[in-house]
Amino acid sequence: MATLKDVAELAGVGLGTASRVVSGKGSVSQATMEKVRAAIDHLGFQPSHAARSLMLGTSQTIGVYIPYVTGTFYSPILSLIFSSLREEGLNMVVAFGSGKLDERSQVLEGVDFLNKRGCDGVIALSNALHEQDMEVLGARARRLVLLNHYLKPVAQQCFTVDHVLGGRTAARALLAQGHRDFAVISGPRHSIDNVERVSGFLDELAGAGIDVDGVWVGEADFSPDGGRERARELLGCGYPFTALFCANDDMGIGALSCLYQAGVPVPAQVSVVAYDDTLSAEYAAPRLSSVHMPWNEMTTNGLNYLLNICYGGQRPTEVASPVGLTLRDSVGPAPQD
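The chain above was modelled as a monomer; its predicted structure follows.
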């Protein structure tokens, strides 16, 4: 395999001159540049990633941390980041949460792994980090972007939505259909965005005169299995409800499956609203109404910000992204009987 030294010897130039031609940095005459390029073509020289990183002073790589690999939620986000980076001539390294550590420790371990692999910057899709963690990261915190999370010390690097408003939006859709009897399948209580979604939902109900202390709330793990099990528990306890709010789409799909198997028609008897508006919501049966999270916009804005910090440029960024609601077949008027 040809080396840069081989290129320099064949072109009859110094090693430093050949390095400047390969990296594109520094002044080299046109004639010398043509000789070096001819030597590169003749030898089939390709600089290693490590050598290129040394020449450029960057790894040309962005790290991405996601909590887990299962399900379909993170796949479109990773695909968007990857395609955007490739358009810039960059690449990415992905780290996942793993092991028996708590979620916060997993994020810190994952970000540390990506930093030690030489990533120029890191995008973390997690809301488990605390403000004091930014002090632990030190200077590396300046090249960290958080998606779906907000920390005051790095406010400009956080790209998220108003989840309280998202919960309120779900409640308004059901109240507008005349529903007065509600149930909730919540995500994990330690998840900040879940707490905000559910609190926004219940606050909107309270403002409409609903006794929220009597609303049935079951906690699950954001998975379809969790949604199905909580829905089965809800049906089994005899609690009367005509509207169900699920704190993410996966749990909503699991709940739809349980209701179908139990012979409960949706939306004729029970209306269901979920959260995130992922692709799976469109293909559920019936199609699942869901609070729209603008993931494409959030991801693009966060990535643009990080690329500007790492490589310069003026790529457009907006910190705030509005939530919405995509109404589909799973919501209908409250049954009159």
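The first helix runs from residue 4 to 11.
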